[in-house]
Each structure stands twice: as structure tokens, then as C-alpha cells.
Amino acid sequence: MNYDETITWLYSFEKFGIKLGLDRIKFICKKLANPQNSYKIIHVGGTNGKGSVCRFLQSILTTSGYKTGVFTSPHIQRFSERFIIDNKEISDSDVVLLFKKIKPIIDEMIKIENTPTFFEIVTAMAFLYFKEKKVDFAIIEVGLGGRFDATNIVKPLLSIITNVTLEHQDILGNNIDDIAFEKAGIIKNKIPVITASKNSALEVIKKIAVEKDASITIINDKSWKKIKGGVDWQEFLISGSIKEYFVKTSIIGEHQGENIALTIETIEKLQMNGVYITDEAINESIAKTVNPGRMEIVSFEPIIILDGAHNIAGVSYLKKTLKNDFVYNKLILVLGILSDKNVKGMLEIIAPICDVIVTTKSQNKRATEPFKLKEITEKLNLKNQVIAKNKADEAVKYALSIAKKDDLICITGSLFTVGEARDYLVK
């Protein structure tokens, strides 16, 4: 098979949906001689901020001379974005080679009626890829939840739980405590855990850390402070366990201070265990880290922001950033949300600050119909104008047609919507 045929084969497994559990991924990895045990791992879970923390960590470790892989999901534009080593995406040829090695195992599983999911196959590919490329470190992002997520067969040096808010309640539980319990499932015996969780979620995580005899470091509001910032940059004072750091980042949103604090705390833990990393590497790497599709500015006249906020917490962060960090005449929102999200709750947060809302949908099967989004928005009885467009590119094209130079266009609601919009804007 060539690359396109390989990708088609992989996506054919999406029809099996989400099946949490570790038996299938363990079966695949055992057949591959457990490649995930061949390198040092940092396991990153939580609700929001996982991608940013992964990117910051990889940048620092790569700058410090360590060959570092990152596995994240979902991708924004290209499947290859899921597998990165030292800022470089996996090649098409390497995807095909991995496929050839893993397909016989999958065929065997299908025969015994133990078919794996798309994410389980892709996770196994990442583990094998990092082994074959002989990485020093792999930063592995949890896909969904934690306890029964396919990534949770790793034996990490450190576990990170960014924060815990309501998400995937149909799978993870109806309340914060239940979701925190699932997220805390990545905590391993005697393996340190770092978290920015708060309130009852933190109490759940602390309890499980005690049960696992895992030391816990808590990032809170005293761990970081925004010093100053502009439209496309901000500077923070980070209070680590060892010392204080003044760092600058081009990733917008005040909440990045929390993500950077988690990152630096992780780096200090590595330093205390003999991993050589300088302050210069930390500062340089944080300054140059980018995270496409997450608070990403792609134009200035008008300002266009791409942000894959897809839950209540993410939309709340986005609203705060738009209100506090930007000056504009009109706010034009291009919005596409998956139907299994808290659509009404997200709209109640973001819609009141918008002048025009262009509802749309991505090609994802779970996408809410644009006219349904329009109907929900109009029932909020706000004074904004609401327009429905069937495709993301049509929605972006319309937003651009009505925007003036001093307006702001924000494209959000789903990483899938953002990815399709980004494709259109890049072209």
C-alpha cells in the first residue's frame, strides 16, 4: 500500500468508535516487543492545556540536545502532526513502514474478534516509531480520560495532570470527582505527579497519589504571574521549586502561565534526576514554541485567531483572552461544535461578546448542524447577527467578506473546525 491507502485503512477503524480498555493495546504492543519500554516517558493528561505543555517540554528537551518525540491527538491539518521528533513530523514513508509492521497483528486481532480502535492502532504506531528512531524522551499525551486510555500502558518518569473540568461526561462520568478519578488513573506507583487541578478534583488526585505512594507537586495561582504582554506575546514570572524564572512566549492567553509553570516544574524534576538542562535552554525554548490551532494568530488586518476551544473551560479561557488582550471594533465568531459537547453552555459563555456569529460544521460525523447551532444561539435572545454556513471554508470566506481592518475574526468550537479553516486560510 502507498501512503494514501495506508491512511484510508487506518481511518476505516474509526467506525469502531471509542472502546476504553487496555487489553487490546497490550496485545498489540506485546507482539511488537513492548516498544514503549525503550525510552524515557513523560505522560501528560488532564482536560485543557495538554498540547501546550507537550510542545513546551519537547522544545526544551530538544534544545538541550535530547532526541525527543511527541505523540498528540487529534491533528489539525495532517495525520503526521500526531508523531513529531525534534519539531519534525513523521514522513509519509515512515507511516507506510509502520503500517506494514503493525497490519499483520491487526489482521490477527480481527480474526479473533478483538478488533482494536483507530486510536489504539495509532498509539501503538507512535510507540514503535519512537523506538525505531531511538529517541531519548517521548512525551505522550493522553487521548481520553486516563485510566483506560490506550496510552496508559507506559511506565513514565513523571505524570502530569494539567487540570480537570467537565468533558466527555457520557464516557468519564457526570461530575468533576468522577472525571478526576479517571484522569488520576495515569498516576503510577512511586512515580511523581505534577498537577494544576483545583478544588474537589485536586482532592481526588491527592488521595490517589497517596494510595500509589506518588509524590505530588501542585501548581496554583501563586506559581505564576503575568508581568506584561502585547497582542502576540506575553511575559510571565514563574515560581519553580528551585528558583524563579522570567519567560516570554508568543502563545497568547493568560492561562499559558499555568501551562508554563507545569512545564518548568517538570523540567526541574528532570534536572534533580540528573538531566542536564540550562536556564538558557528553558527561556529560548519557551520563547520559540508554537502550538498551531491553539490561540494562534494568523492575520493582523483583520486579526484572525484560531483556537480549538471545545469545552466550557476552553471557551471561558478564550472569552477572557478576547476581552482582556485585544482591541477591536467588531468581533466576528466562526463557530463549529461537535454534537457531543455542551453546545448550549459554550454558546452562553462566548455568544454575548460577539457582534456576528457564523455557525458552521466540520466534516466530522459528530459535528452539530449549522442551522441547529443558529437556532440555539438565537434562543439566547442576544442582539448579535447569526448566519449559518454549511462548510468551514464558506464560513471563513463570509467572515472575511464582512470584516474590516479593525475587526477581529475568531474561529473556534472544535479542533476539526479550526483545522479545516486553517487549510482554507493557508491556501
Write the layout of secondary structure elements.
Elements: H1 3-11, H2 23-31, E1 40-45, H3 50-63, E2 68-71, E3 83-85, E4 88-89, H4 92-111, H5 118-132, E5 137-141, E6 158-161, H6 169-172, H7 176-183, E7 193-195, H8 199-211, E8 216-218, E9 224-230, E10 233-239, E11 244-249, H9 256-272, H10 279-288, E12 296-300, E13 303-307, H11 312-325, E14 331-335, H12 343-350, E15 356-359, H13 370-378, E16 385-388, H14 392-402, E17 408-412, H15 415-426
Parallel strand pairs: 1-5, 1-6, 2-5, 6-7, 7-8, 13-17, 14-15, 14-17, 15-16
Antiparallel strand pairs: 2-3, 3-4, 9-10, 10-11, 12-13
Structure commentary:
By secondary structure, this protein is an alpha/beta fold. The protein has two domains: 3-288, UDP-N-acetylmuramoyl-L-alanine:D-glutamate ligase; 296-426, Protein-Tyrosine Phosphatase, Chain A, CATH 3.90.190.20. It contains 15 helices and 17 strands.
Short description:
This protein has 427 residues and is α/β, with parallel strands linked by helices. It has helices at 3-11, 23-31, 50-63, 92-111, 118-132, 169-172, 176-183, 199-211, 256-272, 279-288, 312-325, 343-350, 370-378, 392-402, 415-426, and strands at 40-45, 68-71, 83-85, 88-89, 137-141, 158-161, 193-195, 216-218, 224-230, 233-239, 244-249, 296-300, 303-307, 331-335, 356-359, 385-388, 408-412. Strand 9 (224-230) and strand 10 form a beta hairpin.
Average of pLDDT: 94
Q: How many helical stretches? A: 15
- What is the name of the CATH superfamily of the largest domain? Mur-like, catalytic domain
User: Major β-sheet, in short?
Assistant: 8 strands, mixed
The residue ranges in which pLDDT falls below 50 over 5 or more consecutive positions are none
